[in-house]
Amino acid sequence: MDTTKLLDPGFNLTLRPMRYPKFYEMYRDAIRNTWTVEEVDFSLDTNDLANKIGPAERHLVERLVAFFATGDSIVANNLVLNLYQHINAPEARLFLSRQLYEEALHVQFYLTLLDTYLPEPAARARAFAAIENIPSIRKKAEFCFRWMDSVQELQRLETPAQRRRFLLNLVCFAACIEGLFFFGAFAYVYYLRSRGLLHGLAGGTNWVFRDESGHMAFAFEVIRTVREEEPGLFDDELKADVVKMLEEAVDCEQAFAEDVLSGGVAGLSPRDMRQYLEYVADQRLAQLGLPKRFGARNPFPFMDLQDVQELANFFERRVSAYQVGIQGEVAFDATF
């Protein structure tokens, strides 16, 4: 009987018998969720930007696309440099390979978005250099690198301390970056959509959101599996670090919210965004099997539920190439 654990060093190549069929099913679901950037129609967005958006909303949009320009690249680099070599199951690596493709697709989507929204080359250059020249985005990037880069020098996860460092990397990646930073960004997109603005951005974000939901589900399943195999890793110190990390992530994203909303956007306030971020952070803690920290409720009715397939149909976007892999409704507070 194979007693190899998921984080044991090595490079297992044996797909049969399959130790973790759940990961393989997640890979197959991801394959069924295929879309292309060319399907996103930005034709209405350009008119909105020219005629329907004021200075405050324009600042929001420009900050948002500047974050998008770098966010998924950070995630992709972490997949290649830190995750793939340490999750020792070929069926799990199948999913990570597919996720890397999806992250590249998101980068292409945001590249197209920037080229459409920021026609001036100088403005595009500033957006792609956001980590250097926009303090609220630099703060988020520094947070990511501090929590994730601590495992880059590890070639093998030999000790419990090394495995805990890896788990903290995975929690940062899944709960904080994909599960909080991007969910905060999605709130701005869906707020604009609720006002009938930027349907192309909303349509592409529906598909990105669906991908990100699958990525989070996979990462939380890895964490659940490791916790089952090695319960001793989840000691009080690790749990305290996770809570500290999420508190810091909320603070980082709140600094971004205060920047994004600095022009005064009707219907959105930094206070409401703080409440929403605390609400999302509590959902992530619950998914990790930890007590909720903030006790916040969702202040945004437009974020109660995102059934992305129906939304795509609502905006009459072609979805034939984007099949249903995550069945049914996709809720922002779903427990994967």
UniProtKB/TrEMBL annotation:
Segments passing through the bilayer: 166-191
Protein name per its UniProtKB record: Ribonucleoside-diphosphate reductase subunit beta
Its biological purpose: Provides the precursors necessary for DNA synthesis. Catalyzes the biosynthesis of deoxyribonucleotides from the corresponding ribonucleotides.
The protein's Enzyme Commission number: 1.17.4.1
Domain of life, per lineage: Bacteria
Gene3D superfamilies: Ribonucleotide Reductase, subunit A
GO aspect biological process, one term: deoxyribonucleotide biosynthetic process
Organism: Arenimonas caeni
Chain sites annotated for binding Fe cation 2: E103, E178, E212, H215
Cofactor annotation remark: Binds 2 iron ions per subunit.
UniProt keyword terms in alphabetical order: Deoxyribonucleotide synthesis, Iron, Membrane, Metal-binding, Oxidoreductase, Transmembrane, Transmembrane helix
One Gene Ontology MF term: metal ion binding
